[in-house]
Amino acid sequence: MNAFFGGGQPGGRGPRERVRRGRSIKIRVELDLKETAFGVSKDITFPTAILCETCQGEGTASGSHRTTCDMCHGQGEVSQVTRSFLGQVMTSRPCPQCSGQGTVITDPCADCAGEGRVREKVTRTVKIPAGVDDGTRIQLAGEGEVGPNGGPRGDIILEILQRPHPTFERRGDDLHCTVTVPMTAAALGASFAFDTLDGTENIDLRPGTNSGHVITLPNKGVTHLDGGGRGDLRIRVDVETPSKLDEEQEALLRKFAELRGEDQSPGRFSPGHGGLFAKLRDAFGAK
Ligand SMILES: [Zn+2]
Ligand SMILES: [Zn+2]
After folding, report:
1. 169-282 matches 2-162 in CATH topology
2. Are 204 and 191 in contact (CB under 8 A)?
3. Distance, CA 233 to ligand 1 centroid (Å)?
4. Residues, CB-to-ion distance under 5 Å, ligand 1
5. So what's the pLDDT on residue 1?
6. Closest to 151 measured CA to CA, from 56, 75, 47, 66
7. Mean pLDDT of the chain
8. How far is the centre of ligand 1, averaged over its atoms, from the C-alpha of 192 (Å)?
9. pLDDT at 151
10. What is the enclosing helix (H) or strand (E) of 122?
11. Ligand 1 centre and the CA of 216: distance in Å?
12. pLDDT for residue 4
């Protein structure tokens, strides 16, 4: 009985494909919010493998050719027969002399040492579309490393990293932020200059604005990646109650409370009187 245990390549015998596809290159591109919102052209520099111009990927010196490997006689694999209790066992493995390719270079190209490609640092400009987000991947097909022996190029995969913005938090294509305004400005109304991604805008705060009020600036967010418009910019208003009052300020506030009939002692704000507790109760939906 002869048992054959295969080595070599799964699914087939014979020389290995000499030309192989090159590796893909993953490159992280760090962008700030404005760049992701509007798109940007970036110069990226990275190490890669390019086709050896001297031998055009052949790996052989000018005028010479690959020759059939004399160890495997072009088969790409070498076999060994051993005796065991099962009988004869034949094992085969890729030919070590030609790396399973069946041919060898006797006179290698001086510029690439027979590899058919050379390593080089290249710089290229990539166009990042508007609307990419943290973690977005962009595939540039066929722009990666040239494969061994001048094989087809792999891809470039750009992975976007978005730097945090000091003011805005991005949620989808909407931008969120909070502005703190003094109690007086919230009560009397005010206008303030606000820096959006598009430039400075004048924002009007209506008299009587409460904490939690959201001012929406439509279409001032991030461009949708599919090109259909932009997200919104949402400014949440936080009303700041003064925590330290001098005597004169306190007197003024007491006078103000008196004028509004709000000068009762805290104990008088009780449920059912339409005061603070009633408002709280209504806000929390209690009956
Ligand atoms: Zn070469
Ligand atoms: Zn060989």
Report:
1. yes
2. yes
3. 56
4. 52, 54-55, 109, 111-112
5. 37
6. 56
7. 88
8. 66
9. 92
10. strand 117-128
11. 61
12. 44
pLDDT above 80 (res 86): no
For residue 66, report the distance from its CA to the centre of ligand 1, in Å: 13
Cα distances from 184 to residues 152, 181, 189, 210, in angstroms, run 69, 8, 8, 11
Domain-wise residue ranges, the chain? 2-162, 169-282
If DSSP codes are grouped into helix, strand and coil, which group holds residue 28? strand
Helix (H, G, I), strand (E, B) or coil at 134: coil
Ligand nearest to the CA of 18: 2
User: How remote is the CA of residue 213 from the centroid of ligand 2, in Å?
Assistant: 77
The reply to whether the predicted model has a pTM over 0.90 is: no
Beta bridge partners, 33, equal none
Report, at the CATH architecture level, how domain 169-282 is classified.
Answer: Sandwich (2.60)
Identify the pLDDT of residue 277. 52
- Positive or negative: CA dihedral 224, 195, 192, 213: positive
Q: Comparing C-alpha atoms, which of 49, 100, 47, 43 is closest to residue 76?
A: 100
- Determine the CATH number of domain 2-162: 2.60.260.20
Tokens of 216: 């929406």
How confident is the model at residue 10, as a pLDDT? 47
Residue 211 token pair: 């904490």
Q: Tokens in use for 171?
A: 């949620």
Interval between CA 180 and ligand 2 midpoint (Å)? 76
